[in-house]
Write a structure and sequence with these properties.
- With 254 residues, the chain is an alpha/beta fold.
- The chain has one domain (2-246): 4-Layer Sandwich (Metallo-beta-lactamase, Chain A).
- It is built from seven helices and 14 strands.
- The protein has a seven-stranded mixed beta sheet.
- Strand 9 and strand 10 form a beta hairpin.
- The longest helix is centred in the first third of the chain and has 16 residues, at 56-71.
- The protein starts with a strand and ends with a strand.
- It binds zinc ion (2 copies).
- The site of one zinc ion has 6 residues, from helix 2.
- One zinc ion is lined by residues 53, 55, 139, 160.
């Protein structure tokens, strides 16, 4: 399984793109950035976008991807997939013909470049060539993490979350998981802000680790660009053998 890091940050900075990952060239896991990281041919290969929640730093790339697909007359749509409340948020607040066009009717309703799919929570669904289970996490809006595998190998993806239980509990019961992709947003001194916005600091991650499947490597993303160095230093002090900050632009193989 191939995971390309399109964007690895919890916001946007100069050359620093919001969180988005591309699995096996076909399935996006969050879509904070897409055309900023892929050429047009690569964008047209994408079949699904798994979305953890509807915050802008996870969906802006989908907005611009649909624009690319429309203007290049893509023969197939990208299917945005998540739990029902997240799909509702996308329809109501993003692709609503006000903030952005409703691309489920462009160029025509029968031939649209955007489709939606509602995934049942805590149930495994087939998405392209992957198996995906959304599990609710603790964020300020409806949000899920995902358990993703291809029958042989797989990973846990936390989405945006503060301290949480169900995702780690479910992941502990699965075999074949190779890595945990987990958010960390703020340095330890901004603990109050992390709690209010339901994100993790390195210290909070240290406590979450005890609930995760033991011994799996942790691949970190979603650090706020403004606090990158400070947060990275604190992360390295927890467990340098197990914790690795993902690199934007790089492709990882499981
Ligand atoms: Zn975010
Ligand atoms: Zn968020």
């Amino acid at each position: 399984m191939k995971i390309k890091v399109l964007g690895v940050y919890g916001s946007e900075g100069q050359g620093q793109r919001p969180s988005a990952f591309l699995v096996n060239d076909r399935v996006l896991v969050d879509a904070g950035t897409v055309p900023g990281a892929l050429n047009v041919e690569e964008q047209r290969e994408i079949e699904h976008a798994l979305l953890s929640h509807a915050h802008l730093d996870h969906i802006t790339g989908l907005a611009f991807l649909t624009d690319t697909l429309a203007i290049t007359s893509s023969p197939r749509p990208v299917i945005a997939a998540s739990i029902a409340p997240v799909v509702e948020d996308l329809k109501k607040h993003a692709f609503n013909d006000s903030l952005w066009p409703d691309f489920t009717t462009i160029p025509t309703a029968r031939n649209a470049v955007l489709g939606y799919r509602t995934l049942p929570e805590e149930v495994e669904s087939r998405v392209g060539e992957l198996w995906v289970t959304p599990i609710g996490v603790d964020h300020t809006v409806p949000a899920v993490g995902f358990l993703i595998h291809d029958g042989e190998t797989g990973f846990v993806y936390s989405g945006d979350t503060g301290p949480t239980e169900k995702l780690w509990e479910t992941a502990r019961g699965l075999r074949g998981l190779k890595v945990v992709l987990v958010e960390t947003a703020f340095p330890n001194r901004l603990d109050g802000l992390a709690r209010a916005s339901k994100h993790l600091t390195p210290a909070m991650l240290g406590r979450e680790m005890k609930k995760m499947p033991p011994d799996l490597p942790l691949w970190i993303y979603h650090i706020k660009p403004h606090f990158f160095e400070e947060t990275a230093e604190e992360l390295q002090k927890i467990d340098p053998a197990r914790i690795h900050i993902l690199e934007q632009g790089k492709t990882y193989t499981l």
